[in-house]
Design goal:
It is a single chain. This protein is an alpha/beta fold and about 325 residues long. Helices cover about 40% and strands about 15% of the residues. The chain contains ten helices and eleven strands. Strands 9-8-7-10-11 form a five-stranded parallel beta sheet, with helices on both faces. Strand 8, helix 8 and strand 9 form a beta-alpha-beta unit. The two termini are about 30 Å apart. About 40% of the residues are buried. The mean pLDDT is about 90.
Length: about 325
């Protein structure tokens, strides 16, 4: 379900009725229709003695982009620390998370053999977020209700975001780059070889070269060129006003815009193929997504540039949260 539908419903229904709607829709509709069919009482029983809460990314549902998944992991990990539950991540769609991120100080790995789909022992729940600043309390209340159920394993499909100021610490407890990813991040930082700011643009399908869930109509002709020109000018304007850098890293989901932006002095473009991991995937594209995430996280500051037609991406904001980098939305 599209995130903007949740935002609209929250406005129309109000806090209390929206809270009830989320619980009913996510767990009496989405879980029932999409997930509960996998759980039967003749499946192998769960062998774990302690309660497991497992973040599931297995292709059975739409999971969203990388930042959606990461914010969900960190939020549920925060819940598990609070309640002393074992936290696990089963990430197999469309790749193994361990190929890019590995456990740091907390071991969240679990094998498929240790996951039980026995309906006596295990329960699938869904917790969705519209990613609004003032929604954390609602999300936390829902998590408290859904995850306290008396099962040996709770399998949660979520993009919830309520870790707040604790995100940086919790993220680094969970994750560090794989050896190969760290090597390539270091290579990119060596190529930049300067203090840099980062400027992120999220066009979705506006420029006609990227597929995303919102499926916005593509601009053509003068409208398309005007948007590109305004965004290029935003780079130049930020460069003039922010003096705490020597280079500018520009990221975008549009190859068209990247090709235009790289002609600006001092702009650095991270190499690789641009993809959305819920729609298409290959190892180079997956790696590029993690390169972007980590290179953004080491910037002096991250700017998210948008106007009223462009999507408010969570990717740059999530990258800023990894290392507590200053983040600003630049509106034009």
């Amino acid at each position: 379900m599209k995130i903007y539908v949740l935002t609209f419903l929250r406005t129309v229904l109000g806090e209390r009725r929206y809270y009830n709607f989320l619980e009913i829709f996510c767990n009496k509709y989405l879980a029932k229709i999409k997930l509960n069919k996998y759980y039967q009482n003749n499946q192998p029983r769960a062998l774990n003695q302690e309660k497991y809460i497992i973040c599931m990314v297995d292709g059975k549902m739409h999971h969203g982009g990388l930042s959606d998944r990461l914010r969900g992991f960190v939020s549920i990990y925060a819940y598990c620390k609070k309640h002393n539950y074992q936290f696990k991540i089963f990430f197999r769609y469309p790749f193994r998370l361990e190929d890019y991120l590995v456990p740091n100080t907390y071991n969240w790995q679990i094998s498929e053999a240790d996951i039980s789909y026995n309906s006596i022992d295990s329960k699938a729940v869904v917790l969705l977020s519209a990613d609004r600043e003032n929604e954390q309390i609602i999300q936390e209340k829902l998590a408290e209700k859904l995850l306290k159920q008396d099962y040996k394993q709770i399998h949660i499909y979520t993009n919830t975001d309520y870790a707040g100021a604790n995100f940086t610490l919790l993220f680094h407890e969970l994750f560090k780059p794989s050896v190969e990813l760290q090597k390539q991040i270091d290579n990119i930082l060596a190529l930049i070889n300067a203090k840099y700011i980062a400027i992120a643009f999220r066009f979705q399908s506006l420029l006609g070269d990227f597929k995303d869930e919102a499926n916005l109509p593509s601009l053509t002709g003068k409208d398309r060129e005007l948007l590109i020109a305004e965004c290029l000018e935003a780079i130049k304007q930020i460069d003039r006003t922010d003096t705490n850098h020597s280079k500018i890293v520009v990221t975008s989901d549009s190859k068209t815009f990247i090709n235009r932006a790289q002609t600006i002095d001092n702009v650095f473009i991270i190499p690789g193929n641009i993809i959305h991991i819920d729609y298409n995937t290959n190892d180079n594209g997956n790696m590029k997504t993690f390169w972007d995430l980590y290179v953004l996280s080491f910037a002096e500051k991250i700017y998210q540039v948008k106007n009223n037609t462009m999507f408010k991406s969570g990717f740059a904001k999530r990258a800023a949260s990894i290392n507590a980098v200053p983040y600003e939305e630049y509106l034009f």
